Amino acid sequence: MPDVLSAPLVVEFPFTRSLGPVQSAFLTGLRERTVLGVRADDGTVLVPPVEYDPVTANELGDLVELAPTGTVTTWAWNPSPRRDQPLDTPFAWVLVRLDGAGTALLHVLDAPGPEAVRTGMRVRIRWAATRTGAITDIACFEPYESEPDQAEPAPHTGEFADPVTGIVVPARLDYVHTPGRAQSAYIKALEERRTVGERCPSCRKVYVPPRGACPTCGVATAEQVEVGPRGTVTTFCIVNIKAAHTANLDIEVPYVYAHIALDGADLALHGRIAGIPYDQVRMGLRVEPVWSEGARHVDHYRPTGEPDADYDTYKELV
Amino acid sequence: MRDVAIVAFAQSAHRRRTDELSEVDLLMPVLHEVLGATGLKANEIGFTCSGSADYLAGRAFSFTMALDGVGAHPPISESHVEMDGAWALYEAWVKIQTGEADTALVYSYGKSSPGRVRDVLTRQLDPYYLAPLWPDSVALAALQAQALIDAGDTDEGALAEIGARNRTAAVDNPYAQLTGDVPAGDHLVHPLRTGDCPPIGDGAAAVILAAGDAARALCERPAWIRGIDHRIEAHSLGVRDLTDSPSARLAAERAGAFDRPVDTAELHAPFTSQEVVLRKALGLGDEVRVNPSGGSLAANPIMAAGLIRLGEAAARIHRGESDRALAHATSGPCLQQNLVAVLEGESAHA
Fold first, then answer.
1. Which residue from A307, A309, A269, A313 is spatially nearest to A289, judged by alpha carbons?
2. Of A171, A195, A218, which one is at a domain's C-terminal end?
3. Do A153 and A120 fall into the same domain?
4. What highest taxon heads this organism's lineage (chain B) (predicted)?
5. pLDDT tens column, A4-18
6. Which residues from chain B sit within 8 angstroms of residue A9, using beta carbons?
7. Where are the domains of chain B?
8. Does the predicted model carry a pTM greater than 0.90?
9. How confident is the model at residue B121 (pLDDT cuts 50, 70, 90)?
10. Which residue in the set B23, B123, B238 is minimally distant from A105, CB to CB?
11. B4-115+199-218 adopts what CATH topology?
């Protein structure tokens, strides 16, 4: 693809959730190799258990203990496990109705191949060696010939020492980001220490950085226009909180962060102001970029020494 | 209730990759086309509503960037749903029903190519019991397909025929991504083969809604929304009967779909097995033309594919090829949530 940049983009976050009393009992139970269900208003035992009745929406709390054995109600053979799935060898996804339960639990089944899996087959839980109070405390199910346990599930208090009250689920998604034509051109120009915006064919405004469309007119921008390098501070703030990001640790507070209208641009971009005491920065101050060494972005802007710009020249951009 | 119609529909060509296009680049030509069809300018539209999901391309607040393509100046009345555009259409329809708007622009887009969509969609699942297992969208659909096979509702051969029928129909659809003779392929997740699964791709769609006389002024044969409803089932797969879709049936009933037969149905069934479920739940017999566009087995831009079903059904009415059509959209794993609209051309009830 000519002239279009791309780069890996990883979105990674720990998904932190607190648990309700039923979920807490169930996940703590898994840590202790105990499977709990909850009795719904119609008497059905729900596994995995939920806080509220799926039909009546009433709060549920009548817990029972089930055997770790059950029956497959449907299955799907996965020949190519994906990165974060429970097993790294081919396995079957299964819905398993544990003995005594009226609903099925989604998990995986360790089996040699699809010919070894069928609906109605008997399975049991294989516990994870290390258990923390999570659905993954069930490592997987495994084939297990046995008669269904017909006994009525026994009541359980749901009380355990040191109950789990929350979960942290790490999540990572991998992308290859492409910013599109306009932003690719903008980034490429930065490499040559030039700032290139795009002009709207309708209202003639020049947008920096360009996003490919004029947000006022709703039409594509295509005509590239070099702007700056000098510009005018249109408004600013004084930052008194030290940055937590490692890239900014060297920046001493207080410092000034400003909107800067580069000469020829109709949209102010933002940047840090340095080379002048923070309390002397003012609207109308004329500035120029100081480029980072070895990186394609402006490190900060510094005063040019020119007289301040007249307010009327930038008031539309404040 | 006010009479509200879909008066215009446009969509992009759906493609596996669109690296050279940002989301607004992808969307903007579609917006221009749909506005152009009615002669309306963005600032003459009463309400604008969109549907998209930032997780697809991994780009935060992408819907605010997409607004650049609308031209939101002077400030417009606007809303967004993190759902398929069919639900944005529902919100716009409600807005028009309140009397606060007479026209609405509804659009949606999905750019799945930057990410791995099977993994991305796991993040919409229950974070306690499902998401930690990373059950991907094909795996969940395959569990449903096996349940249908076990129940005697279908078999692998019948599923392959569904794929073939949709993609043959799509030969006449210039926007479709996967058309014609597509091999059944290997099992992706057994019992689903690659041919049972939708293509992954990027695309956008837009419609314009208008009420009463405004609709008649903007379109020669408006596609009147005679009823529209959406219903949801429990999230947990283990409490549902995966071979049925009571939510689709109830939505159809409340939309009036069973009052009189429809001649056409556009079903949002990304997997062949899901068409089996929907035909059964919606009572669609062989006399109904199902997915003359090729459906989402031919093009499945996530977040737009449901809106496209409404648009395709409406476009058939605009062209006089249908008098009464059912349009369906789905959301969530294994048809968890379903929207049904019934569209009619004026002559059908004259």
1. A269
2. A171
3. yes
4. Bacteria
5. 899 999 999 898 999
6. 58, 114
7. 4-115+199-218, 117-198+224-344
8. yes
9. very high
10. B238
11. Peroxisomal Thiolase; Chain A, domain 1 (3.40.47)
Q: What's the whole-number mean pLDDT along residues A189-194?
A: 92
The answer to whether the complex's ipTM is over 0.90 is yes
Last residue of a domain, one of A126, A147, A171: A171
Instruction: Tell whether B55 lies on the interface with A, counting CB pairs under 8 A.
Output: yes
Say if residue A165 is in the same domain as residue A183.
Answer: no
> Residues 328-347, chain B: which have Cβ within 8 Å of A?
none
Least-confidence region, from A27-31, A246-250, B61-65, B162-166: A246-250
Q: Which domain holds residue A221?
A: 179-227
Interface test with B, best of A83, A93, A177 (most B CBs within 10 A): A93
| β-bridge pairing A195-199 and A206-207 | antiparallel
- The pLDDT confidence band at residue B235, using thresholds 50, 70 and 90, is confident
**Total count of domains within chain A:** 3
Residues A215, B150: C-beta atoms closer than 8 Å: no
- How close B318 gets to chain A, by Cα (Å)? 27
CA dihedral angle for residue A277, residue A279, residue A284, residue A290, rounded to 10 degrees:
30
Pairing state of beta strands A69-78 and A122-127?
antiparallel
Claim to verify: residue A31 and residue A89 sit in the same structural domain: yes
A206 and A276 within one domain: no
Phi, psi of A64, rounded to the nearest 5 degrees: -135, 155
CATH superfamily for domain B117-198+224-344: Thiolase/Chalcone synthase (3.40.47.10)
Span B237-293, pLDDT tens digits: 999 999 999 999 999 999 999 999 999 999 999 999 999 999 999 999 999 999 999
Q: Which residues of B touch A17 (CB under 8 A)?
A: 127-128
Which residue from B minimizes the CA distance to A108? B133
